[in-house]
């Protein structure tokens, strides 16, 4: 993987973890370095500086900076120097005209001991607007859900920003080795996703530099470095280049990259809590230099990704802690409601296992052993407790490989490989121990991790590996590691058991009584609701029987009314006995009872929510109205319709209007059945509202008024986004080349093409990059933006036509764009385009 400088070739392996990393006194050739004293006298110069400054190194050393640098440039440098804060602060200034009448430079400025280090490289004006670009990239990150999709999207965005052939998200494990957890690469390259890399690939000193310096670029692995002169100051000290943007790397690292077939690399740190969590590792198969402005955007994106990742992980940890805390509190309440001594702990094994996920639990209380699940035997557990009593003072003790710390633990690895021990009393301690089984797993390494060193001309030295082929290793004897959240949860459990349960506090007893009172109140409320429901059903059965002659008709009527009650109850209980939507109620009743006729029920009104006690009443009324309409009213033939309209009046009452039209002639009923009674009396009686029903010849009219106490405004429903998924009958396959100089549009096109079935999408922002990708790995089809800034994509189109590869132009010019005659009939899609337009372009 890409990394900062490793120790030079003569460093002994045994000293690597002790000695500070050697900072090479040389810089990469795409820029130059000046070091000046606090009084702005040049003290050191990179040997390639004369190529830009036009003066020999000897003439520059000891010269005041204002003797050859423009006064306005020095003014800007001094101003930015004033803003540096913190020991590792670096500032960047773009398009600075250091020399009069000469092209501008991009400058990086930082302090190294007493020296002011000025690093300059020719400015490459891109009009990048790094802030806006990164804000857009971060916005796409924030739309992802889940940990893996977040990392994949970040790799994709970084590749689009930098243009490197391969971008990997590389995560460090607790033991120091690394793993590629996300990858975005052009087609035709080997995949590194899922490969692990040994600790020795990136030494500790290099990782320490990554925490100080977020970004590192090697533009050309084969380019010679330029030395910093003089190599040491009068006190014999070299210039510390830890924060340098141009710093060259050791021959070992260069050899490492060559062994991987990499010609250029870029790495951006990913930090969590200020510590190195991982890297964006970028590789290119040819030399590649990107401007300081674009590198700054990449660094800013890396910082933003670090904060988003940390925020996501903190949210997950907080949620996990909240779940554990909830179970923990229930356990404490249960313990407090009965015997409060440690002797009651075995009765709560399931609750304990839910607090800290485990495969087994062991309890040692006053010499009594209690084991549950996958654990050592009682005799083995006793030996383990003796070992635990020799560990450090009262604290939780966690290990994922018992046998490494306690040799007899190797005998029961298959039952208990890891443990989390919680001391729950004073010395001699009682223990609550969580066990986890062995998790044998296969780790795929990029080469053999056991061969980090070799014999060279200077003896044993760090030697980069020459093989990166997959090498598998089976890891045994270890469990899943214990997370920081689990350790904090175990510590909270220890404190509680010691300070709450063992001291038999009065507050625990008071909480027990309050919990009992709440339970009794809940039972009383449940009993009240059940009795109300039973009374309601009894009334439905009794009243329905009074006006129905045949048993089968009685069964049907009662069944329909109870189904209406059930549907209303489902809507209320789906929101935890909260209010239900009036619109959903009418639509549900229409669909459930009327089937295909439901589209003849027309609704008009801003949706409102009905409180549960009103929802069931209104549901019965709507059901009876629908039933009568289907039997005798507007919906009994094929021509009628129902209009249901509602609004809030001046006193905030809900007024519902029911109007039937287009059906047969309506006559008032000759007898008043239970259904009519429900329609006319239930809302006035149950809700203290109003009901008015008129049997007009043209159709039934009804008006209902529900008091405001039972009504609340419904939140606006979000519009569902249109799906980009094409119909299964039309899909693309293979590799698609997208030539587009706008990164966001290119990413959008990649998403659409992937959804259409493309197996890979390569992106290029220029003609040169597009032609390189075509020669490296021919695509199956291509989408070409006509205008690429200072050039057009026509040369790419002609090359694709020569190779017989189908392609389409994408343009924002509308009808004014004309395909060159020599290209023939080429499809043109207009921006903005989507899946349908691309499918039509590639039939």
TrEMBL record:
Domain annotation Phytochrome chromophore attachment site: ranges: 146-303
Domain Response regulatory: 735-843
Enzyme class, UniProt record, top EC level: transferase
Highest taxon listed in the record's lineage: Bacteria
Listed GO MF terms: ATP binding; photoreceptor activity; protein histidine kinase activity
PANTHER family: ETHYLENE RESPONSE SENSOR PROTEIN, TWO-COMPONENT SYSTEM SENSOR PROTEIN
Protein's recorded name: histidine kinase
Organism of provenance: Methylorubrum populi
Lineage: Bacteria, Pseudomonadati, Pseudomonadota, Alphaproteobacteria, Hyphomicrobiales
